[in-house]
């Protein structure tokens, strides 16, 4: 029999005794071949309770919460108080499903409003769950529960997380690689915590006018910038690209509206993916963005690759027709890469042709590249399109592109991608 | 049933009056990105040790918001004996998550002008939100949804409607048709007469205000009842399904208690919602009885 010490406030095992009991339970269930679950429970916002009402009141709250835990857990598990507002619940014979059910029940019990004297609270808790694994020592077992609890806390609290699921967060894509899961988790986090931003890169006409600004998505989670090179493929793989794309549509149209309100009439170009165009609700989303931003469709341009214009899907074609019919303009992005086909150009209802940066990179010295750019510029213009060259980084490239007959250029040499505020100043300065 | 409650439920029916009042008043406003005060509250909330006094100060800078928050925290849905007397106390009672979303709901409402018809629409949304939160607290279903998510969903579920009323002069007729439609989905009726529908619009707005993904998905699909009947092919997270079913039941309770039934939605989806929530006919009778206090406390 273990000599145990009891925490006077709650009547639970104190921290030291709890660790001893955990050690004992681990060896007992191992011998018996039974499962064991640990639930690490941490009250949310307890520090504020202590600071606002004093430590005595904090103790009263703890006493009430302890009572709720006791009533709910009964004889199913051992409970220890391992910190000021932290408890560990050790449940022998508990599988993951049992443990998750208990966590839900405990959260539900804890959530009941507390009304003690002048304290009126709606308490909540973050719970981390670990199920004993074959290689676990007692300490690593509890540490996993603690880490899962921290993850629950980091996700905003008032939830439980099972150890090992911290990155998955119960969503789709269980077969993805770990890094992709991490990126996916961060994307969800960005969607829910304001980690998405649009930067804008202008396209400048040969007369110095601003033809449009292209919206480029940026993602930052907990201060860490995630490159589009990393998050776009994951978003496409998981289907999240549709949600991100809708977010871009709304933010991009709003930007057009803000600029208009500020006296700057500029077209905003927004990138659209195949997954978005395959969504039967794309047209509704586009119109929802226009309605929400209250902006005229003529100020919005959708950028998509040539292959999408030629896509056989009826949904894609219906969505493109709907966009065009309402007055939104379409442009061909990255033209000249992949399986570009000049013959297709005559059938594409786009008003802008954007030549891929690879042609520009070879300028001004590569004569073959010069010939191709010149031919495409003339062909595009003959078909009634504005021809724009992407990726302009040097003065010599710019000068040659004007000579070759392009109508507009985009690239670091002319303007870097910039946030909405910087864009506004830049546009004002260029008027 | 009180006369006040009847008024609240008549919101959709009186949409045509609302539209006329709204059309000129807010034709030119856009719906903003997440308001900056929400960003500031969000930033404080995500600190390791949020400063409640600072938060209270931020909120109190808008007297209307502070009053709204205190009023919500004192609603019987949160079932306290004591009453919050200050923003700080309201924050403590509601918790930061609920506070942030309640403030989002208050701000959304403030974006539109005060008109009797629109006020009734928002009041109905507020009651559905409280009923949804209350239902989520009752538990019993296999789907464990958070009361504050249910509350948020109830607040934002139909937020696309006032925006469409503002933009499309014929939308009141569309709304009337959709409310009366027995076969087609509500959004199918909207789409036949408008270029978008309130569910897609509301979901995009909610997403741009950084609401939880499950809530945004629920807003987008809250009229796609076929998705509630999914079996092995998981299309939506179970929490999203639970939110949709809970709010649908909340709307039905509101209609049941006020004696008005302005939509066909419960006829289309009631059975599947009850099945999803594991509520049988006998349970439903208890729910009718127990929910009366939440309805009556709305005034």
Summarize the structure.
With 431 residues, chain A is of the alpha/beta class. Chain A is built from 17 helices and 16 strands. The radius of gyration of chain A is 30 Å and the shape is elongated.
Can you describe this structure?
The complex is a heterodimer of chains A (431) and B (299). Chain A has 431 residues and is of the alpha/beta class. Chain A folds into two domains: 15-162, Reverse transcriptase/Diguanylate cyclase domain (Alpha-Beta Plaits), CATH 3.30.70; 195-430, EAL domain (TIM Barrel). Chain A contains 17 helices and 16 strands. Chain A has helices at 15-32, 46-53, 55-73, 96-111, 138-154, 178-193, 228-238, 240-261, 274-277, 282-293, 306-309, 314-325, 342-345, 357-361, 367-382, 395-404, 420-430; strands at residues 36-43, 78-83, 86-92, 114-116, 119-121, 125-131, 159-162, 196-205, 210-221, 224-226, 268-271, 300-305, 329-335, 352-355, 386-389, 408-409. In chain A, strands 8-9-11-12-13-14-15-16 form an eight-stranded mixed β-barrel, surrounded by six helices. In chain A, α2 (46-53) crosses α3 (55-73). The longest helix of chain A is centred in the middle third of the chain and has 22 residues, at 240-261. The model of chain A is unreliable at 168-177 (pLDDT under 50). Chain B is mainly α and 299 residues long. Chain B has two domains: 3-26 and 114-296, Hypothetical protein af1432 (Orthogonal Bundle), CATH 1.10.3210.10; 32-110, no CATH class. Chain B is built from 16 helices and no strands. The longest helix of chain B is centred in the N-terminal third of the chain and has 24 residues, at 87-110. The N and C termini of chain B lie close together (12 Å). Residues 1-29 of chain B have low confidence and may be disordered. Chains A and B meet through α2, α4, β5, α6 and α8 of A and α6, α9, α12 and α13 of B.
Task: List the SSEs and their pairings.
The complex is a heterodimer of chains A (431) and B (299).
Chain A: H1 15-32, E1 36-43, H2 46-53, H3 55-73, E2 78-83, E3 86-92, H4 96-111, E4 114-116, E5 119-121, E6 125-131, H5 138-154, E7 159-162, H6 178-193, E8 196-205, E9 210-221, E10 224-226, H7 228-238, H8 240-261, E11 268-271, H9 274-277, H10 282-293, E12 300-305, H11 306-309, H12 314-325, E13 329-335, H13 342-345, E14 352-355, H14 357-361, H15 367-382, E15 386-389, H16 395-404, E16 408-409, H17 420-430
Parallel strand pairs in A: 6-7, 9-11, 11-12, 12-13, 13-14, 14-15, 15-16
Antiparallel strand pairs in A: 1-3, 1-6, 2-3, 4-5, 8-9, 8-16, 9-10
Chain B: H1 3-9, H2 15-25, H3 36-45, H4 52-60, H5 63-73, H6 87-110, H7 116-138, H8 147-156, H9 160-167, H10 171-180, H11 186-193, H12 198-208, H13 213-221, H14 238-258, H15 265-276, H16 281-296
């Amino acid at each position: 029999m273990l000599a145990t010490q009891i925490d006077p406030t709650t009547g639970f095992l104190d921290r030291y005794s709890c660790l001893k009991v955990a050690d004992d339970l681990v060896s007992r269930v191992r011998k018996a071949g039974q499962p064991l679950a640990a639930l690490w429970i941490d009250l949310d916002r307890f520090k504020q309770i202590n600071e606002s009402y004093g430590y005595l009141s904090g103790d009263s709250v703890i006493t009430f919460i302890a009572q709720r835990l006791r009533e709910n857990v009964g004889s199913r598990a051992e409970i220890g108080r391992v910190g000021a507002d932290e408890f560990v619940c050790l449940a022998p014979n508990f599988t993951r499903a049992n443990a998750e059910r208990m966590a839900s029940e405990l959260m539900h019990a804890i959530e009941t409003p507390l009304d003690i004297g002048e304290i009126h609270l709606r308490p909540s808790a973050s719970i981390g769950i670990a199920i004993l694994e074959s290689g676990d020592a007692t300490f690593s077992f509890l540490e996993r529960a603690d880490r899962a609890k921290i993850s629950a806390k980091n996700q905003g609290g008032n939830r439980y997380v099972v150890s090992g699921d911290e990155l998955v967060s119960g969503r789709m894509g269980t077969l993805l690689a770990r890094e992709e899961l991490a990126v996916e988790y961060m994307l969800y986090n960005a969607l829910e915590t304001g980690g998405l931003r649009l930067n804008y890169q202008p396209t400048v006409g040969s007369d110095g006018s601003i033809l449009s600004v292209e919206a480029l998505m940026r993602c930052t989670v907990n201060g860490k910038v995630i490159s589009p090179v990393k998050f776009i493929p994951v978003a496409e793989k998981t289907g999240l690209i549709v949600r991100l794309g809708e977010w871009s549509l709304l933010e991009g149209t709003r930007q057009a509206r803000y600029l208009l309100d500020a006296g700057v009439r500029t077209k905003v170009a927004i990138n659209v993916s195949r997954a978005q165009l395959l969504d039967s609700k794309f047209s509704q989303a586009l119109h929802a963005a226009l309605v929400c931003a209250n902006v005229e469709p003529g100020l919005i341009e959708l950028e998509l690759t040539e292959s999408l214009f030629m896509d056989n899907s009826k949904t894609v074609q219906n969505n493109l027709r709907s966009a065009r019919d309402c007055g939104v303009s379409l442009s061909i992005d990255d033209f000249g890469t992949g399986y570009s086909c000049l013959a297709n150009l005559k059938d594409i209802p786009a008003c802008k042709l954007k030549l891929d940066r690879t042609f520009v990179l070879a300028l001004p010295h590569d004569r073959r590249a010069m010939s191709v750019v010149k031919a495409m510029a003339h062909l595009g213009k003959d078909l009634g399109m504005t021809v724009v060259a992407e990726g302009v980084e040097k003065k010599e490239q710019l000068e040659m592109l004007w000579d070759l007959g392009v109508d507009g250029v985009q690239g670091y040499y002319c303007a870097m991608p910039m946030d909405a505020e910087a864009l506004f100043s830049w546009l004002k300065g260029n008027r | 049933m009180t006369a006040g409650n009847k008024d609240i439920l008549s919101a959709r029916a009186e949409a045509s009056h609302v539209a006329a009042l709204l059309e000129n008043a807010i034709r030119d406003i856009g719906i903003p990105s997440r308001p900056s005060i929400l960003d500031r509250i969000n930033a404080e909330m995500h600190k390791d040790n949020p400063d409640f006094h600072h938060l209270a100060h931020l909120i109190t800078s808008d007297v209307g918001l502070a009053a709204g928050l205190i009023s919500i925290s004192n609603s019987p849905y949160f079932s306290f004996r004591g009453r919050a007397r200050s923003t700080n106390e309201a924050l403590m009672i509601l918790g930061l998550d609920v506070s942030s979303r309640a403030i989002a709901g208050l701000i959304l409402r403030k974006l539109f002008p005060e008109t009797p018809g629109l006020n009734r629409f928002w009041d109905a949304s507020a009651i559905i939100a409280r009923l949804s939160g209350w239902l989520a607290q009752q538990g019993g279903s296999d789907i464990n949804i958070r009361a504050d998510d249910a509350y948020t969903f109830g607040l934002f579920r139909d937020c696309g409607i006032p925006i469409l009323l503002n933009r499309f002069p014929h939308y009141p007729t569309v709304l009337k048709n959709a409310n009366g439609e027995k076969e087609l989905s509500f959004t199918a009726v909207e789409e036949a007469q408008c270029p978008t529908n309130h569910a897609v619009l509301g979901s995009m707005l909610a997403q741009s205000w950084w609401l939880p993904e499950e809530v945004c998905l629920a807003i987008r699909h809250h009229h796609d009842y076929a998705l509630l009947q999914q079996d092995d092919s998981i299309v939506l997270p179970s929490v999203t399904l639970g939110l949709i079913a809970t709010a649908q039941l909340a709307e039905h309770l509101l209609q049941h208690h006020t004696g008005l039934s302005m939509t066909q939605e419960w006829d289309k989806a009631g059975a599947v919602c009850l099945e999803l929530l594991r509520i049988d006919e006998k349970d439903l009778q208890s729910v009718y009885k127990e929910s009366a206090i939440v309805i009556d406390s709305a005034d």
